[in-house]
Amino acid sequence: MEGDPKQTPYQFPLIVAVEGGATRAVVAGDSIFLDNAHIDLLANRDFAIAATDWLLDRTQLLESLSGYPVSEYKLVMTSSQFQKTQWILLGGMPGGVLLLGGLVWLRRRR
After folding, report:
1. pTM of this prediction?
2. Which of 51, 62, 87, 88 is most buried, judged by most C-beta within 10 A?
3. Strand runs (DSSP E) across the chain, as ranges?
4. Same domain, yes or no: 58 and 90
């Protein structure tokens, strides 16, 4: 429904870090990723600690932040996103290949 403020078709997380002279700021468009239910998901705790260290200018703690090898990948999707992905992978991609192959076959047949 158009004009309904409750329905947003897409939501994108946005976090900005700004440094101007002696002032530093980290602005997050949403703080839900830092609540009790989400702080341990997707390295949110690591981000919060690193952002705090950067804001307090504790650069000696940030130097050891070179990253760590990823041993597990986690893909977070809603059920509707998962269903759309299934349709694309199981129907759209093979269908596209068949359609392209059919067009090439028709073109060469002439």
Report:
1. 0.49
2. 51
3. 15-20, 23-28
4. no
- Count the helices and strands in the chain (H runs, E runs): 4, 2
Q: How many domains does the chain have?
A: 2
Asked whether residue 37 falls in the same domain as residue 56, the answer is yes
Our CA angle for 33, 6, 76, nearest 5°, is 35
Give the Cα separation of 24 and 62 in Å (integer).
15
Query: Max Cα separation, the chain?
Result: 72
In a domain, 16, yes or no: yes
Amino acid found at 54: W
Same domain, 95 and 52: no
The amino acid that residue 28 corresponds to is A
18 located within any domain: yes
Q: Which domain holds residue 87?
A: 77-110
